[in-house]
Amino acid sequence: MQQHDFDILVVGGGGAGLRASIAAAEHAPDLKIGLVSKVYPMRSHTVAAEGGAAAVTLEKDSFQAHIEDTVMGSDWLAEQQVVDYFVRHAHAELVQMEHWGCPWSRKEDGTIQVRRFGGMKVERTWFAADKTGFHMLHTLYQTSLKYPQIERLDEFFVLDLVVIDGAIAGVIAIQIATGEMHLIRAKSVILATGGAARVFRFNTNGGIVTGDGMAMAYRHGVALRDMEFVQYHPTGLPGSGILITEASRGEGGIMVNKDGYRYLQDYGLGPETPLGKPENKYMELGPRDKLSQAFWQEQQAGRTGRYGESDVVYLDLRHLGEKYLQERLPFICELAKAYVNVDPAREPIPVRPAVHYTMGGIMTDAQCETNIKGLYAAGECASVGLHGANRLGSNSLTELLVFGRLAGEQAAANAHAQDFAPLSTMQEQLNQQQQQLAELSARDTGESWVEIKKELLITMEEGCGIYRTEAGMQKTLNTIRALQQRYKNVQVTDKSKVYNTELFMCLELGFGLDIAEATCLGALERRESRGAHQRLDEGCTARNDEEFLRHSLVYYQGQEDARLEWQEVDTSILPPAIRAYGDAAKGAKS
Amino acid sequence: MKLDITIQRYLPEQAAEPFAQTYSVPYDASTSVLDALTYIKEELDPTLSYRWSCRMAICGSCGMMINGKPILGCNVFLRDYAKTGMLIEPLAHFPVERDLIIDMESFLTHLEAVKPYLINKKAQGVQTFEPHVQTPQQLDKYQQFSNCINCGLCYSACPQFGLNPEFIGPAALTLAHRYNLDSRDQGQAERMPMINSEEGAWSCTFVGYCSEVCPKQVDPAAAVNQSKVTSATDLLLSLLGGRS
Lengths: 590, 244
Prior knowledge:
The complex is a heterodimer.
Chain A lengths: L1 E10 L3 H13 L5 E5 L15 E2 L8 H11 L6 H20 L14 E2 L9 E2 L5 H13 L5 E5 L1 E9 L2 E9 L5 E11 L20 H8 L4 E2 L4 E7 L10 H4 L3 E3 L31 H13 L4 E3 L2 E7 L5 H7 L1 H11 L8 E10 L2 E3 L11 E3 L4 E2 L11 H23 L5 H20 L4 E2 H15 L3 E2 L1 H18 L2 E2 L9 H25 L8 E2 L9 H4 L1 E6 L7 E6 L15 H6 L1
Parallel strand pairs in A: 1-2, 1-9, 2-6, 9-17, 16-18, 19-21, 20-22
Antiparallel strand pairs in A: 3-5, 4-5, 7-8, 8-9, 10-16, 10-23, 11-15, 12-14, 13-14, 14-15, 23-24
Helix pairs in contact in A: 1-4, 1-10, 2-3, 3-10, 5-14, 8-9, 12-13, 12-14, 13-14
Chain B lengths: L1 E8 L9 E8 L6 H12 L18 E4 L2 E4 L13 E4 L6 E3 L2 E2 L2 H9 L22 H8 L9 H5 L1 H5 L5 H12 L7 H9 L12 H5 L6 H20 L5
Parallel strand pairs in B: 1-5
Antiparallel strand pairs in B: 1-2, 3-4, 3-5, 6-7
């Protein structure tokens, strides 16, 4: 066992974790900062974000407009004061990234170029070709190297938080290369561990996106909020689920069914906009939840095509021409060629919805702090209240900057005011973890984690997919609870210490099962349809503000079933109204 | 269809030497090498260890040698190896930790050594909250060199790094060059000592294999060669006293 002390410990080396680390280093140069990550920082899934990062930029745009779009996108389930803070701090963060060297795409005069994005009424999405997340992550990683007070612990897997009397004391981690246990003490801890989309079978996410941080906070009594809202991105590649950016549509790409018909006009997003003339908030520039739901309807009606094992629709980019595609969407051209053997300049790309983003997460206040003193969360793992029932594309890259920075500063202030917990009081939790791990490693009989994982992924897709029913969700919830029981006897075949990747996949599955329960319980109890949560059962097919203009909070109950509570939503800026896109929005306003 | 895949295993807690193990893996037209490794881990042998995450050739985790060539496992497909067969080994020139997992520390140390961040003395600053002006032509100068995903394939391709692990190598030199070419940067003078040093650009013997294996067409060989020109100019200027 090794022991370390840091004033601030950041868990997760993606965009939010790196931004938080840098903010803490700049804000409080006297503090010692630890950055622990289960992968090298540049492997973090921020790297795969493609389209861009939103901030009010053009003169015709306004903070109010960005607030309206985000709140409408959220189907009124966003915390509006949080949205207000986000919108006002977005631009400065993107400029900060520019000052750190991010290669933002430019206009001829050398100023920042912005592109259209779904659900946004004005062009405000900054981008670096179609590799925005990649460039942001590498810029942040490289910039973090300037600060000697940031000490990285790469390839450390965090097992658990240590909480004493309602305050954070540190974490327990395993060094992946050696299998050795580390007790890391810290005055402040920031969770920046990303989402949990990997509890679903068909998704755009990397293998590491397993909800570890969410589950750890949840097991210590922090609520998971709004977990029923799972974003299906409308354009994943069939088979792999690899992401084809929404920027494809922002640049003018169109969606057609097997008959070549632009079906989105039939789902409240029309009328059809002329080819090559995309219009904000119309057709292909509707929000992700609506587009994924339209796919499902087309599939039911038998108007989807087929690619391999998947039903698909088609993303047609041919009219944009090869030169423009190479300039604006080079990565998309590369991915389509490699994974479905399609040259987008010549053929439409087959696509289908794939799970992409966890709207819910670790409940924090507007300053990113949880109900555990000194424990903060930022980025996709957190629910600070920005996304509500549906996230708008390009809000999340900006989110990890705005709230990563805020969490870093808050954690620094807290670290100045706190002392380390006595090591003696942390020992008990350490012993407990060591014992649990020893038991798991020693178990020679039992079931493989692989079978449990496969069943989890399938049941989540069946019960918590794009459209949901009471019976389907109840069946999934029962299945998850049975899988949790089976997991108690799970067996890890690999007994070695050095890079025991099987052990970590098994532990990730344990986290995933708890996340899945919270997700499914939230979905079951929300007897309405809102944003990404759509139900087919009677009485639940429409939004019901009277009963459900509320956040779901799910609390862990140890061996018992999880418990759900409701929390009021802040609607202090924009009172609830009809959520409409296309021409229907005009009618809604008048 | 099935393909026999032979993997060089190394389990340091069980055997001092690496050994070969062959697995038979079913595949179709879309099965990548990474898919095959996942199949082996989940269905045949859970002890097989390798790094992976994104599956889409952007996170840079899954570099490995396939039939002797450095490649990203997620980016190549079994269908293309039906005739040749497949031997997978860990990336060459790096110490092996276990199976296909190599020790990346030297690579990261080299990246850090070139000060890969914007150095801007005027601090033309965040205080103003205005972005710098940078035209598409100025962006073009370095953009290609900013696309490196840190996968390490070029180090496995580099004979010089194979002989001398102290050579800072293609990716790090490319990153230095990327910042030196950035119109917003004024840090070239700080980076030149490293580039000019014995372990810097001049160690490169211009084999060019690094560019051939780069999965992102970053062309590190071009970056290193351009760095030599910069370096020569810099050295000449310093001899003439023209550089402070």
